[in-house]
Specification:
The complex is a heterodimer of chains A (510) and B (666).
Chain A (H helix, E strand, L loop, with lengths): L1 H15 L4 H9 L5 H8 L6 E3 L22 E8 L2 E8 L10 H17 L3 E5 L10 H17 L5 E5 L2 E3 L4 H4 L3 E5 L4 E3 L3 H8 L5 H5 L1 H7 L5 E3 L2 H12 L40 H8 L6 E3 L7 E8 L2 E8 L10 H16 L4 E7 L6 H5 L2 H14 L4 E10 H6 L9 E4 L4 E3 L3 H8 L7 H15 L3 H5 L5 E2 L5 H11 L18
Parallel strand pairs in A: 3-4, 4-5, 5-7, 6-8, 7-9, 12-13, 13-14, 14-15, 14-16, 15-17
Antiparallel strand pairs in A: 1-2, 2-3, 10-11, 11-12
Chain B lengths: L3 E4 L3 H13 L3 E6 L7 H5 L2 E4 L12 H11 L3 E3 L9 H10 L2 E2 L4 H8 L1 H10 L7 E2 L6 H11 L3 E9 L2 E6 L2 H19 L4 E5 L5 E9 L5 E13 L2 E7 L6 H17 L4 E9 L5 E7 L6 H8 L3 H9 L16 E8 L1 E2 L5 E2 L2 E2 L2 E3 L4 E3 L2 E7 L6 E2 L6 E9 L2 H13 L2 E3 L5 H9 L1 H5 L6 H5 L11 H23 L15 E6 L2 E9 L4 E5 L4 E6 L7 E6 L2 E10 L2 E6 L2 E8 L1 H7 L13 E3 L4 E6 L6 E2 L4 E7 L2 E6 L4 E6 L6 E2 L4 E5 L1
Parallel strand pairs in B: 1-2, 1-4, 2-3, 4-5
Antiparallel strand pairs in B: 6-9, 7-8, 7-9, 10-11, 10-13, 11-12, 12-15, 13-14, 15-23, 16-17, 18-22, 19-24, 20-21, 21-23, 25-26, 25-32, 26-27, 27-28, 28-29, 29-30, 30-31, 31-32, 33-40, 34-36, 34-39, 35-38, 36-37, 38-40
Helix pairs in contact in B: 4-5, 7-8, 12-13
Chain lengths: 510, 666
């Protein structure tokens, strides 16, 4: 009997060794941790429950039957992050290069099915050479099964991908359909076709890092939501993100004890808006001063910096923040910022995370680049996302809210619940000078007259009170009391229920 | 007494004067430029009068505008503060003509002391020690030796036309004087085409020590001890103290009496300062007289209990001094640290912008001492480029110098300033510097001790252990809170461990932390323990703790797996990890920061206006590369050395953050 128990231990030890000590050392030499070490860092100490440890592939072609390592290149199971359940898979590059076989995919599918059934997030740690070529279509079928599960799980449980090594070809499409993608700088890359194919087809010479490294995907392509210095930091930050997220679409966002005063007054916010309306200020200061403990988890920090997206807590509860950033492109909306914010808003709505919007938007960015790029449809994504979101929505206009962009940024007309404005708010169709030039076209030749008209327009509209007269603004508030006002608004909305007309699904302008 | 006075100044000194005036029941009038519309001094005054655009040349120092403000407000007297119009005889004259009292000395005294040569002459006549020297032409080496011997060695032999150390020799004996004269003469001839030479006493181990005097219009004059201001950076005073750790009562008395004699000789009234240079043998020589309230006057107030501004106002009102020399004693020790909006890590480059956080330590008792902070800024205010970068004067008082320094260390640690670069870490470093602590300082202190500039502080092991213990205790609180999140799997909650490894400044400390109701006990590998107590909770940017038996104040920011901690001039990332996390973290490659020596980094947040070069261009040292607009000012960025532009990362219209790479060189 004891021998049998011993044998189990032996088998386990064997499985845990992955591709063997030599390959584990090679992984370390590359500055990467092994699949199991990564799970140790991601999950609470000792909380990992591994499944399918002894799964091995069934391929018999090309001599594969001679090499059937335990686990088949992926470690799967569940564990906890600060006591909350998550399902995980971690690809093991030391075992057959982490390549995806039918059985490898099957292991991932198993925990994804459990995640959807039991209502907990899925976190995938990707480090794989790609499809197991020896398996041919079986491998592709495996990918397909994972894809279908990504789609079905979307909006049911949060899905997070961490790219910690290669992720190329069809493999990229599983992370692509998850809610968040994080990458590790210098040791991960993602692309559909690699540098060699690129060179053959388009004659472009490009390194893997340039083509699909963390910098590329966080700054240029916006495929990734964030990048971290190394495996340790990346996994610690994923833990931090999970602390903000609900476990599934039926659970409320998490609440945790907080050490901050709900009615904390920030007198310095009274001076954040510069005297000169054309000077920028840092919207992040407002976000940090409103948030509990100045704790802000930014999403897509490096992309479309003219809009800020991320999570904060108010009274210990998660709130999604969208804010125009006057420091970049004057905070205007454009293709990139609309797409970025729209996706974030839809995530929050899918998982019942209330939305806080800070508005300082001079309008949409003009130009052929924008129009040819389809700013009409991309801009409409954000409009659509805000309009369909049924979560509590609170909006604060700090300064400019001009034109169509005013409507887009969680205005009253898109069923925002509470719309506040600072006394410095200007809600108008456009800036005063432009407006004067259109209304008083006859006086165009006379700059003095135009200036006079502009001043008159500014007197009339460069304030929040016209909108407040109409009830589009519920209340004009002092900047210093923003935290208290916003917190109370969300407290008031805790039991909000609102539903849209029945439909199979909407048709957001993709 | 006056009903209303106008303060012809801004910033902390305007606020300082108003404080006293308001205490005396006198109404105050502030003047302000466009840039100071919401400044503290303008908010604090009973009345405020706009005086023009931001540059001082168009506002604060335009006599006509100030006079107009005086007329408009009906102020009966004017306090000029320091700088601006404070030592401008024309302004004093204008006030006299208008029949408005000047809270300062008479015009004649300002004029007499305003000229270096005249003031030296007057000082000599008044019996004040001046640096001995021979100003006439010196014929030959033998005459040079004779003169040198008369002055007394060491002497400095200088080229009349000299500068930058050229044609300058120090001689300690006849032989050196002979040689020095000849070589100086030759060097002067070849460098300046002018071989005239003069000789003066060389002051060894020079200290800057000044005497505060106070005189009324009734012939009374007293001195209020000295202030030592030897800690200077490029002639800018940084740290001052009173009394000086160097003077003995005899020297103090001699200096004080000479200072009063000089003041009386020029018919001085009001508060004034006679600056001396003092050598290693306590010989002192007159430098100049400042005919105004000095920046560093608070240290004198703290040890004498005299409100100098009140005295100035009373004297201006024609009152006789109510205090005599016998009333002036030395009570304890006071130190002033000047907080400048200058980034010590960027060679003290002035820093401007919004004060996103400004929380000075509370004024009043702290530990065994007292804290005073004279300031002219507030959280949410703007540090503008138009005025002096000094934003606060932090002073501490305690019965002894050691205690005053200790109180200052804690006060500096508790001073929160964010949004701009500032010299707090540098001040902390000076307060911990053994040479400063010993009092063995000279005006060369900063140049000698920080020849390569300031690059932060490496703490001693004991200090690191204290910080490590504090961080483990704080991290424990933060991690336990994280585990108290809603939605946990019942009965499978996370248990926060007791064993941690703290990594900071290249050291790893494996520790065990045990907590009870009053605090945490942190046990190190060698068995020693440190007790940590305090009420820090996550999110607090300042941790006021007691570690061991001593207070420890930390500025705390959360980073991944730990904290960024600033204390005692050190700015460090402190990682607190479980033993296993630490083991795995040790496997991570160390990433060296990119070599920025071949890059042009954006020095301030701003907008690219133009690029003056293109990729592939050869550039010369000093050549303009691009223009960045910040705060409505166009800043031309120039090449630090010759090279070839390999890559340009920004274009006109791009907004950049600090340290964004604008272009790269081969």
């Amino acid at each position: 009997m004891k021998d049998i128990l011993h044998e189990l231990e032996d088998r386990r030890r064997n499985a845990r060794l992955g591709g063997g000590q030599k390959r584990l050392d090679a992984q370390h030499a590359k500055g990467k941790l092994t699949a199991r070490e990564r799970l140790e860092l991601l999950l609470d100490e000792g909380s990992f429950e591994e499944y399918d440890m002894f799964v091995a592939h069934r391929c018999t072609d090309f001599g594969m039957e001679q090499n059937r390592p335990y686990g088949d290149g992926v470690v799967t199971g569940w564990g906890t992050i600060n006591g909350r359940m998550v399902y995980v898979f971690s690809q093991d590059f030391t075992v057959l290069g982490g390549s995806v076989s039918a059985t490898h995919a099957q292991k991932i599918c198993k925990i994804m099915d459990m995640a959807v059934q039991n209502g907990a997030p899925v976190i995938g740690l990707n480090d794989s050479g790609g499809a197991r070529i020896q398996e041919g279509v079986d491998s592709l079928a495996g990918y397909g099964e994972v894809f279908q599960r990504n789609i079905e799980a979307s909006g049911v449980v949060p899905q997070i991908s961490v790219i910690m090594g290669p992720c190329a070809g069809g493999a990229v499409y599983s992370p692509a359909m998850t809610d968040f993608i994080f990458m590790v700088k210098d040791s991960s890359y993602m692309f559909v076709t690699g540098p060699d194919v690129v060179k053959t087809v388009t004659n472009e010479v490009v390194t893997a890092e340039e083509l699909g490294g963390a910098i590329t995907h966080t700054r240029k392509s916006s495929v990734a939501d964030g990048a971290f210095e190394n495996d340790v930091e990346a996994l610690a930050e994923v833990r931090r993100l999970v602390d903000f997220l609900p476990l599934n679409n039926r659970d409320a966002p998490p609440v945790r004890p907080f050490f901050d005063e709900v009615d904390r007054v920030e007198a310095s916010l009274d001076t954040i808006i510069p005297e000169n309306p054309n000077l920028p200020y840092d919207m992040k200061e407002l976000i940090l001063k409103v948030a509990d403990e100045a704790d802000f988890y930014e999403i897509q920090e490096e992309f479309a910096k003219n809009i800020i997206t991320g999570f904060i807590r108010l009274e210990g509860q998660t709130v999604g923040v969208v804010a125009n950033q006057p420091m970049v492109l004057a905070g205007c909306l454009d293709i990139d910022s609309s797409r970025k914010a729209a996706r974030f808003v839809r995530f929050c709505d899918a998982f019942e995370i209330p939305l806080l919007t800070f508005v300082d938007v001079p309008g949409f960015l003009p130009g052929t680049g924008q129009e040819y790029g389809g700013v009409i449809k991309h801009g409409a994504k954000l409009l659509f996302a805000y309009g369909e979101a049924t979560v509590p929505k609170v909006t604060v206009i700090t300064r400019k809210a001009y034109g169509g962009a005013y409507d887009v940024m969680a205005s009253k007309h898109l069923r925002a619940d509470v719309n506040y404005a600072w006394p410095t708010a200007q809600i108008a169709v456009m800036g005063a000078k432009g407006a004067a030039e259109i209304i008083h076209r006859a006086d165009l030749a006379d700059p003095e007259k135009i200036q006079k008209h502009a001043d008159a327009y500014e007197d009339r509209f460069a304030n929040p009170f016209i909108a407040a007269e109409r009830g589009f603004i519920d209340e004009v508030i002092q900047p210093r009391s923003t935290r208290r006002r916003v917190s109370r608004a969300f407290a008031m909305l805790r039991k909000k229920k609102r539903s849209m007309p029945w439909k199979k699904h909407d048709n957001i302008p993709l | 007494m006056f009903d209303k006075i106008l303060i012809a100044n801004r910033g902390e000194i305007a606020c300082r004067v108003m404080k006293t005036a308001q205490r005396m029941g006198i109404k105050t009038v502030a003047i302000y430029s466009d840039a100071d519309k919401h400044a503290l001094h303008a908010e604090m005054a009973d009345e405020k009068i706009h005086i023009g655009p931001p540059p001082a040349k168009q506002s604060y120092i335009v006599i006509d505008k100030v006079m107009q403000a005086i007329r408009d407000s009906g102020a009966q007297a004017v306090h000029p503060g320091y700088g601006f119009l404070s030592e401008n005889p024309k302004f004093a004259q204008a006030l006299e003509d208008a029949g408005v009292a000047f809270i300062g000395p008479p015009k004649g005294a300002i004029e007499a002391m305003g000229d270096k040569i005249t003031s030296k002459k007057l000082a000599k006549e008044a019996g004040v020690n001046t640096v001995p020297g021979y100003m006439g032409l010196i014929e030959d080496a033998e005459e040079a030796v004779k003169i040198s011997a008369e002055i007394g060695y060491p002497v400095m032999i200088k080229a009349s036309a000299g500068g930058g150390g050229k044609g300058m020799r120090i001689a300690w004996n006849d032989e050196e004087a002979r040689e020095g004269f000849q070589s100086s003469k030759n060097e002067a001839a070849s460098s300046f085409g002018d071989d005239r030479i003069f000789i003066e006493k060389f002051v060894t181990q020079p200290r800057h020590i000044e005497i505060q005097v106070l005189c009324d219009a009734h012939g009374n004059g007293i001195y209020l001890n000295e202030r030592e201001c030897s800690i200077q950076r490029r002639n800018q005073k940084v740290v001052e103290e009173a009394p000086s750790p160097f003077l003995d009562p005899e020297t103090r008395k001699a200096m004080g009496e000479q200072a009063v004699a000089l003041a009386k000789a020029v018919g001085y009234t009001s508060a004034g300062t006679v600056e001396f240079i003092v050598d290693g043998d306590k010989n002192f020589f007159f430098l100049e007289m400042n005919t105004r309230l000095q920046v560093e006057h608070p240290v004198t107030e703290l040890i004498t209990g005299v409100d100098l501004v009140e005295q100035m106002i009373r004297v201006a009102n024609g009152e006789a001094l109510s205090i005599t020399q016998d009333d002036i004693g030395i009570n304890g020790w006071a130190i002033e640290n000047r907080l400048y909006a200058e980034d010590p890590y960027r060679n003290f480059l002035p820093s401007i912008g919004r004060l996103t956080r400004y929380r000075p330590p509370e004024e009043g008792p702290m530990g065994g001492g007292v804290v005073r902070n004279d300031t002219g800024v507030f959280e949410g205010g703007e540090i503008s480029m138009y005025y002096d970068p000094m934003i606060a004067k932090l002073c501490t008082w305690a019965p002894s110098r050691g205690e005053a320094i200790e109180t200052m260390r804690t006060a500096l640690d508790a001073f929160e300033v964010e949004g701009i670069g500032h010299n707090l870490p540098f001040l902390s470093a000076v307060m911990d510097h053994p040479r400063f602590v010993s009092g063995e300082i000279t005006t060369a202190f900063i140049a000698e001790e920080y020849p390569e500039g300031f690059h932060g502080v490496e703490l001693e092991t004991d200090a690191l252990r204290r910080v490590a213990a504090a961080c483990v205790a704080m991290n424990r609180v933060a991690e336990i809170r994280r585990s108290r999140i809603s939605g946990c799997l019942d009965n499978h909650e996370r248990k926060v461990g007791e064993d941690w490894v703290v990594a900071l400044q290249g050291h790893d400390f494996p520790v065990t932390v045990k907590a009870d109701r009053e605090g945490s006990t942190v046990r190190f590998e060698d068995g020693t323990e440190l007790r940590v107590q305090g009420d820090w909770t996550p999110g607090d940017s300042l941790a006021r703790l007691t570690v061991g038996d001593a207070p420890l104040v930390l500025k705390v920011d959360k980073i991944t797996q730990g904290f960024r901690i600033r204390t005692r001039g050190a700015d460090m990332k402190v990682h607190v990890r479980s033993p296993r996390q630490a083991e795995l973290a040790a496997l991570m490659p160390e990433k060296l920061p990119p070599d920025t020596s071949k890059m042009l980094l954006c020095p301030m947040p701003g907008l690219v206006v133009t690029l003056a070069v293109a990729e592939g261009d050869e550039v010369q040292e000093g050549q303009a590369l691009c223009t960045v607009e910040a705060m409505k000012m166009e800043n031309i960025l120039r090449a630090e050395r010759s090279g070839k532009v390999s890559k340009i990362n920004a274009g006109p219209g791009d907004s950049l953050a600090v340290d964004d790479v604008i272009m790269e060189f081969e």
